[in-house]
């Protein structure tokens, strides 16, 4: 089975082996959220990912794909392409894909922390989602949220609200001053989520500003997990952290696990 996971930063293609292992075949950089209006870009990338594969079943999860009408429309477009002829296509949102991968036949909940964020659970086959409001309204705990907070702290630092030499130096690698910051964000559409790994690295080195940013976002994550657990009315529900920010061990993942354990479970 071929598994395709498209988010706000990359599209990853995995092969699911008969032994249940996941083997990463390729990773294509870019924004594959279907709500961005770049459907042609998404269709092209999906076609490229599939055309050389001999796998019969294609499981596709895309950020922003939650409406059933949109799913059917996208599936119909894919079926007109030669690469998908004779294939079994299973289309779903990125969070639905994560639920199926981590909890295929059992109850469980996930916190997806990547470019955006969403929190979901599956109980007795029924799915429930909270959060995931989008980058502008607020995907708390996500790369976007951390990046926006880093920008806010940097601009306040430049205004003179506080001092932090190491944080200022790290941000100046991207923005030389206030004017440059605002220009890149508002006129050049700077990829705000790319600041998140820098903040995590700074926090791991003991920087107090970076640690405060991550602490705030970790508590928001815990709030959503706590709400999700309350809505499911389940006493014991396993949780899986997934998404680019926490898929590998790092300072932020450890902090999120700690805060959730203290305040949400």
From TrEMBL:
PANTHER family: N-ACETYL-D-GLUCOSAMINE KINASE (PTHR43190). Residues 4-259 form the ATPase BadF/BadG/BcrA/BcrD type domain. Gene3D superfamilies: 3.30.420.40. Pfam families: BcrAD_BadFG. InterPro entries: ATPase_BadF, ATPase_NBD, Euk-type_GlcNAc_Kinase. It comes from Candidatus Thermochlorobacter aerophilus. This is ATPase BadF/BadG/BcrA/BcrD type domain-containing protein.
């Amino acid at each position: 089975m071929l598994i395709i996971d498209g988010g706000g930063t990359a599209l990853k293609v995995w092969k699911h082996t008969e032994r249940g292992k996941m083997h990463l075949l390729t990773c294509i950089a870019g924004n594959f959220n279907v709500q961005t209006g770049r459907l042609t870009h998404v269709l092209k990338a999906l076609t490229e990912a599939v055309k050389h594969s001999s796998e019969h079943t294609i499981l596709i999860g895309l950020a922003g794909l939650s409406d059933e009408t949109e799913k059917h429309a996208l599936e119909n477009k894919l079926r007109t392409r030669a690469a998908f002829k004779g294939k079994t296509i299973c289309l779903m949102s990125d969070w639905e894909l994560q639920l199926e991968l981590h909890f295929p036949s059992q109850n469980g909940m996930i916190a997806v922390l990547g470019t955006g964020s969403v929190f979901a659970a599956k109980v007795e086959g029924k799915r429930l989602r909270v959060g995931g409001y989008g980058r502008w309204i607020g995907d708390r705990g996500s790369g976007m949220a951390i990046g926006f907070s880093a920008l806010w702290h940097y601009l306040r630092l430049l205004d003179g609200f506080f001092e932090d030499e190491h944080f200022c130096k790290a941000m100046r690698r991207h923005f030389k001053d206030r004017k440059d910051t605002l220009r890149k964000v508002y006129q050049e559409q700077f990829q705000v989520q790319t600041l998140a790994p820098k903040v995590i690295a700074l926090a791991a080195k003991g920087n107090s500003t970076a640690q405060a940013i991550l602490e705030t976002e970790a508590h928001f994550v815990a709030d959503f997990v706590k709400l999700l657990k309350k809505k499911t009315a389940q006493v014991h529900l396993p949780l899986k952290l997934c998404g680019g920010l926490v898929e590998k061990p790092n300072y932020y993942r450890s902090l999120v696990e700690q805060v959730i354990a203290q305040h949400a479970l």
